[in-house]
Amino acid sequence: MRATRRAPGTLPWFASVPALVVAALFTIGPLVVVVAFSFMTRPPTGGGVVFRFTTDAYRSFLFTKDFTGQLRFNPTYLQVFATSAMQATVTTVVCLLLAFPLALWIATRSPRAQGLLVLAVTIPFWTNLLVRTYSWMLVLNENGLINRVSRAMGLGSHELLYTPLASQLGLIYTFLPFMVLPLYSSLSGFDFRLAEAAYDLGAHKLTVLRRVILPLARPGIVSGILLVFMPALGSYVQPVLLGGGKVLLIGNLVAAQFGDSRNWPFGAALSVIILAVLVAGLLVVRWWARRTGTTVSISL
Amino acid sequence: MVADPGRPVDRRPPAVVARENGLTIAGATKTFDTPEGGQVHALDDAALAIRDGELFVMLGPSGCGKTTLLRAIAGLETLDSGEIYLGRDRIDGTPAHSRPVNTVFQSYALFPHLTVAENIAFGLQMDRLPRAAIADRVAEMLALVRLDGLDQRRPNQLSGGQQQRVALARALAKRPRVLLLDEPLAALDLKLRRGMQDELRRLQRTTGITFVFVTHDQEEALSLGDRIAVFSQGRPAQVGTPEEVYERPVSRFVADFIGDTNFVTLPMQADGPRQVVRFAGGPPVVLPDSVPAPDGTVTVAIRPERLRVDGSAPELATGVLTELVYMGTDLRCTVTLSDGTALAVRVPPPFGGLHLVPGATVRLGARPVDVRPLVPEGSAR
Question: Taking the model in full, what pTM does it have?
């Protein structure tokens, strides 16, 4: 029997091989390595792993062994997770509050202006994140822009760089476009005649926003929240460069395990725990989306 | 009548006589800037008096200002100048959400995230009606538009006709004093549209609410309206009952826009004390109340179905049958007169005894009332 002819515009199956190879090598491969390492033993000298199965890495996330060998609950790492979650939450909320009016404003411009404004939102992507973070350091440091203006106004200088505030500021700055773009894409598809209809039916402007625009922008809001919260939870660059690494967050905790602490299994286990938390979060979002009939797509 | 098309352009501030009832519009003017930097006069000193409880149709080609005026009545568009009164109350400064006026939008604009019942309840919730009252009114509206049982559906689970009914129910639920309908049937197919026209007339009679209906479909306007305003260039060119605008169009524009019409321009002649015209060597036809143009001609409008070929009306002229199309309900003929004037003629059945074949010579006749002299173009505005 002859093979069925392909539909026009489609490629044979082997056309996807390069993509599959890339995915296997750079996504699934490292993931398998991380999961495998998290169940191995730390060599006595530290660094690397010994191929012997153990769940010690996961145990040490919550418990420490005291000198008698008894397990004791140790909330230190949970606190690191809580601090990170807190910072990611603040980032997400502030980004949402800043991005929504901006996205709504862009979506109500003329089509030409919309194109230009969206381009403007993506301008930061053209420059390397490290470069942008260093420029924040120049703005915030002792002799930076803000302190010079502050001194000129007689308000004295402030310690800005290497504070949690600086780290938070850096996170908000970095992730704002990731909130604006999905919000804009759900609002640009919004039929503003619906707002007119609501207005005609007696709704005031704020009611129109609450009862019509917000519910219809929900898919964009959810994907914006996911796109900001997930990377913000494991962020590394901003807490280290702007926060001075003073506050221990998941990102620098993991990095430390592969660096100074030389505890690869524990670092791997921490990564797996973050992954598990995020997957659980996504499952909740999926359950909610099915229940409410909301379409959620994690895309810009 | 407020809109008198024979009146010369009046630039004085409108002397508004707001009546006890109805919707009065005076001097409505609205100019839009075009993207090319030009200006469009969407409304140009438009005036209208719509009566309470009538089904009023605003008819006109796209860009004639009818939709802009509808949106201005709704409060979705601000007039550059002019006044809108509901009864004696001036409403053009009132925000849309506070006007006792609701709109059925061309796109229906149903809230996709709400069910049918929630859509209908929306306006009532805005009025902060008690829950029980809202539920009662929603049920009443569902019954009124015959959508019982579909209250938990979402708009995308409904057919176009059903969505239309929800839009109607949602707008009527607030019991507005005026219901505005912006080409609500344009998206429906012909058969559904006919059904909805009957439905709209029924709803209007049952509720007694004033309906202001915008359309560009002259047939829809004729079949639906108690009165029609034919819009041209930002203002009503004629306001009247369907019969008035069809039988006695005041201008070439109105005659041309509503139905098919033959226009013939003829020199006005004096026949003793009477003003007459002659069609290509035919007998004189008296035009009692006609105004000749400066060049001494007059344009007459004659509907194709009012021309007779069976000798049952006074003769206009003799011509040759040059084209013949069988349409079932009638024969569509073209009769060419000796001076080359081609007239469209519709011959009603029975066709049998008339010997209508291309090339045949026919005597065209028309009742004097069916030969309508038009006001010359210059003075029509």
Answer: 0.79
